[in-house]
Amino acid sequence: MERWNRVLVVLALLVSTGLAGWIAIERWQIESRNRAVELVLDYADVASLASSAGMTVAEWLKDFQTPFSVALTEGNLEQWGARRWEGGRWVYQLSEARFQQAKQMLALRAKVQIDPPADQPHVRVVSPSGAPFAVVGEPSVIAQIGLGLDPDQVAQVRLGGKPIVARLTNTLGLGAVGVRGVLLKTRQQGATLVIFAGDQVLGYRSQLETTARAFRSLGLRYGSVEFGRQAGDAKLSQTLPDRTVRVHSITSAESLLMAPRQVVERFERAVQERNIRVVYFRLASADTQQMREAIVELERALHRAGYALREAGARPYPEWQIEPWKWLGIGFGVGVLCGWLLSQLLGGGWRLWLPLGLGVGFALLCALPEGRKLVALASALLFPTIGMVMLSTLAPLSFQERGAGGERLEDPSPPPLFTGEGGRGERFSEAPSTPDPSPDAAGEGGLGRVRASAGWAILTLLPLPFAWSLMGALHIVGLLAGTPFFIKADQFAGVKVAHALPLVLVLLFYSAYAFGAWRFWREWLQRPMLWGQVALIGVVLGAIGLMLIRTGNEAPGAVPDWELQFRSLLENVMNVRPRTKEFLMGHPMLVVALALLVCRVRSWLPLAMLLGTIGQVSIVNTFCHLHSPLEVSVWRVGWGMLIGLAGGFILAGVLLSRLRSK
Hints:
It contains 27 helices and 13 strands. By secondary structure, it is an alpha/beta fold. The strands form 2 sheets. A 7-stranded parallel β-barrel has the order 1-2-8-9-10-11-12, surrounded by 4 helices. A 5-stranded mixed sheet has the order 3-4-6-7-5. Helix 14 runs antiparallel to helix 15 and helix 18 (446-461) packs across helix 25.
């Protein structure tokens, strides 16, 4: 049965990896066909620049040849009209075009009547020629109700020949008729892209389904603002994945603190690394020439990265339908691997049926969206952990120490951690000991040849953890595939657990490996604690904690300024920046850990393996950022491996030289 389980694991992983690779190729093809970016300027910025140049907005837009759209924010009575106090009531005087639109929009969002009520609070709205009307309600509230896009601004943008982007606000209590009416008016004014202003989307809370249906029927695109935290955004994006484009914006206050080059780099990074397709460009205190130069520089930077600015060019990703049987096959492979690992740890008997049983169970889980997330999390935990643990079983096969005469010095077999022996805490009978590096043990000059051959052993072992980590990443890419993941309407669940748990498991395993018994912690707790050990534990826990805090975008303040500048330098040199924790810590320490493993130096092995696992976990986590293009993730991992391994071999060379000199 054990032999058949090994065959089942190999076959199941071949099938699941093949299916995941199939889906990954489809994803790459979809991503490669969506390279157009829409540049959006704010109307207030455009009007300010036009006024400073002595031009109308339409003239300024015609003079600016770069393709871009203009965002118009919904106005209100306070902004559109001249207010005066008359007869104990507030009266707003509007131009005729604004007056007619205000009457339509206020009728959708409030109570409008021709005759002003005698005993209720209200405001009156008048125009040079139209019949005045009254809006019943608290005057301060009525003055802030959105009236749609300013018709005068719409006319200027149309004369300038630029597309219109609508920025609408929500009104509490707005019904289904009001939602449809607002969006219909917006579409009639020429807008095809809507980016909501304020802290909530139109229709939140009760009318989000109405908003989604109106978007579809009117052919509107929804701009989901990255880091915007607008109420209702997540649900609307999930309902409209094939109508949603991601928006990255920068406020005027932020742009005041940044050089134009930094603004350009920020937008370029957002487009290239996070599937941003709408760039809401702000550059405070800039004149027309500076704005033009910054936009031209952004256009060049995007072109170098393989993207292009297009007028109204942001295109949603198409709805991607994946055959469910592919997910079932991937889940079966992950389940078989998990079952095989448990059967090795728990022993024989009925446990030998775990690979098949869990394979079927995981496959059935993949029939459900939340089930696929659980299987993806299991992949993030299993694959990098197994890759690191397997190093201990293959190290003796790749490096066997011999004396000057060629004889074996000793049996370097690792403790039988997968055979069930040593399970009650006794020391392993075959636990290896650190060899005596003196010339007497290997003969004069023989030890030098032994240490030199360790480099080839490291090269032999090195592909193993990377292969397992990349295979796990590929399974996650296959399991969590679909349009919602492109736009971050859905995402990988359990990032913190996927970072921390493999580190803990690898640390425990190699602690037992170095000590020679499963229950190493009993003897370890009985020994007196030294201050150096306390300091070391504090450093390790602090490093892991900092890594978890900096995972994702939850704590941008955890990244110091010098590191941000270093990242910018790497991006300028390599276009895609490798992850710092991979090439500065994880990968170099993995090479060092392998050097310790093949030379059977156990003192620092658990710590080195722990730090080496950080790089493998980071590789898997890179592909868990499903809103990042697959090509970018591949380049990021590749650069990290190249730089990190080069540094690791330098460190390993120094370590082997010190061992050779002992």
